[in-house]
């Protein structure tokens, strides 16, 4: 009984103790309130005659303190707003009218200003470089060529001391640079866009197809990387720029090439056997693997014409291929005239034109490169193809010459980048028509391609000039006719000399007698000993 009463009384006791403690605390706070800056601001006693006046004085003083504090805060906020507005205007002025790099003032005593100046300069480098549009150039040698690369190799025009047209493994500084760019592009592709609610696809380096890059010495390095898209014939393209500093993303776009048709235009006179070889390549790569292709053959004269038409018709029947056009001209062969007629004969929608020759071998990957590097009103593609040396010289010490597919490897012993040739090119028909087409006054071999190339260089279109791994010029014996002009004859002979073999291989042929004599002497010497 006593225990139950104690339990009931315990909560009341605890409550009374809490109330007592609170009361003591309040009295202590009222009695021990500290003074202001120099005098005690104690509350007056309850029975004091100045109770009312004392409270009013204290409240008035406290109100004055709060008012002064609010005024001070407002002044600070106004100052910060003015400073922020001034910095914003300063940054806008620097972005709109920024001086040359020599005028940059990196004042380390003001790190924020130095950072703003540097950022504005880097962005101005993107605007000054040939990234968004082409620039007018004076000659064909003024164009800065691209290099192309995959995960394993770099295909380069500037071969350096090694003279290798392809480099594996690449130099460490170049390898580190390209790995950084690929990783940055993959990170950009995997960054959520905040729009799509679907589970995003995770990209990896294995989705990388190919890339091209070039460096403008006083601006920076431009990178264009292509990745596999979400479906067949779809790609992701990332454009990056390194303005001698951090890489900046310029563009991230979807590229759908499923409906992009290529019209391959081939001018031809005689050479039926070569055309048969060309059609084997066209059937396998163009019809069977790619499928989005049209063939236009512009034939000069009538000799061997029926044989050529028969080859074309047989391919059409066996491959169920109807997308071809045969045009016959009764006049002297002119490559420029044939290509021009073939381009203008097309009556469909705007199409990618691939100007080709009968002694060219291309892959399905090249056809995609042709599509990806052309854009109406903006870009034309001038690939640097790999030219094959004379197989009888290259494989003269072998038991037999390998098959054509086995010969098409990119090595300095097997061929060279044909960087002096501008005949194989991809561009939209609208750009070709707007630029004025070929100079039809040029007859015979050579010259018409350079003339067209110069037209594009003198325009505002961007010229993509890069070596490609899927385009080969097959070796054939070259005949330089007496009817050619002196300039054309000289170009033809230069081309003929370069087509035969490498410098070292030609040297072995020139000094063949000396080498055989030396080996014979060595053999006799070894017998005597």
UniProtKB/TrEMBL annotation:
It is found in: Golgi apparatus, Golgi stack membrane. One of its GO terms (cellular component) is Golgi cisterna membrane. It holds the Pfam family CHGN. It is a single-pass type II membrane protein. GO terms for biological process: chondroitin sulfate proteoglycan biosynthetic process. Residues 63-97 form a coiled coil. Its EC number is 2.4.1.-. This is Hexosyltransferase. It comes from Sylvia borin.
């Amino acid at each position: 009984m006593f225990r139950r009463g104690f339990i009931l009384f315990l909560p009341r006791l605890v409550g009374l103790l809490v109330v007592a403690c609170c009361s003591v605390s309040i009295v202590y706070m009222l009695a021990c309130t500290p003074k202001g800056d120099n005098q005690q601001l104690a509350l007056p006693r309850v029975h004091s005659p100045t109770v009312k006046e004392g409270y009013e004085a204290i409240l008035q003083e406290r109100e004055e303190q709060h008012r002064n504090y609010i005024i001070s805060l407002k002044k600070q906020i106004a100052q910060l707003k003015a400073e922020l507005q001034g910095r914003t205007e300063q940054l806008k002025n620097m972005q709109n009218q920024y001086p040359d790099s020599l005028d940059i003032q990196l004042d380390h005593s003001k790190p924020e200003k130095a950072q703003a100046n540097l950022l504005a300069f880097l962005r101005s480098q993107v605007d000054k470089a040939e990234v968004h549009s082409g620039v007018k150039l004076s000659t064909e040698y003024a164009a800065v060529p691209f290099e192309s690369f995959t995960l394993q190799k770099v295909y380069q025009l500037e071969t350096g001391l090694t003279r290798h047209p392809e480099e594996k493994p690449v130099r460490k500084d170049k390898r580190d640079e390209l790995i950084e760019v690929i990783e940055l592009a993959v990170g950009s592709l995997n960054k959520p866009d905040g729009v799509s609610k679907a589970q995003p696809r995770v990209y990896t380096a294995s989705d990388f197809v190919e890339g091209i890059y070039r460096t403008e010495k006083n601006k920076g390095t431009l990178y264009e990387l292509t990745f596999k898209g979400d479906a067949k014939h779809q790609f992701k393209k990332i454009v990056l720029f390194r303005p001698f500093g951090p890489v900046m993303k310029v563009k991230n776009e979807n590229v759908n090439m499923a409906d992009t048709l290529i019209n391959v235009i081939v001018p031809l006179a005689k050479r039926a056997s070569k055309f048969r070889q060309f059609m084997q390549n066209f059937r396998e790569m163009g019809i069977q693997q790619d499928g989005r292709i049209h063939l236009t053959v512009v034939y000069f004269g009538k000799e061997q014409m029926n044989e050529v038409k028969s080859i074309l018709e047989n391919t059409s029947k066996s491959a169920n291929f109807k997308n071809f056009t045969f045009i016959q001209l009764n006049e002297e062969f002119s490559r420029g005239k044939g290509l021009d007629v073939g381009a203008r004969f097309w009556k469909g929608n705007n199409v990618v034109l691939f100007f080709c020759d009968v002694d060219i071998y291309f892959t399905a990957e090249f056809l995609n490169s042709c599509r990806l590097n052309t854009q109406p009103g903006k870009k034309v593609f001038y690939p640097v193809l790999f030219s094959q040396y004379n197989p009888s010289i290259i494989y003269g010490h072998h038991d037999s010459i390998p098959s054509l597919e086995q010969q098409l490897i990119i090595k300095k012993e097997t061929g060279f980048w044909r960087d002096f040739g501008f005949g194989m090119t991809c561009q939209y028909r609208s750009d070709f028509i707007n630029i004025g087409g070929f100079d039809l006054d040029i007859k015979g071999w050579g010259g018409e391609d350079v003339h067209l190339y110069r037209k594009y260089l003198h325009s505002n279109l961007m010229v993509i000039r890069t070596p490609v791994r899927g385009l080969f010029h097959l070796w054939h014996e070259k005949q330089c006719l007496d009817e050619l002009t002196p300039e054309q004859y000289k170009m033809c002979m230069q081309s003929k000399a370069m087509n035969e073999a490498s410098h070292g291989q030609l040297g072995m042929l020139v000094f063949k007698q000396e080498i055989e004599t030396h080996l014979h002497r060595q053999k006799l010497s070894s017998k005597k000993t």
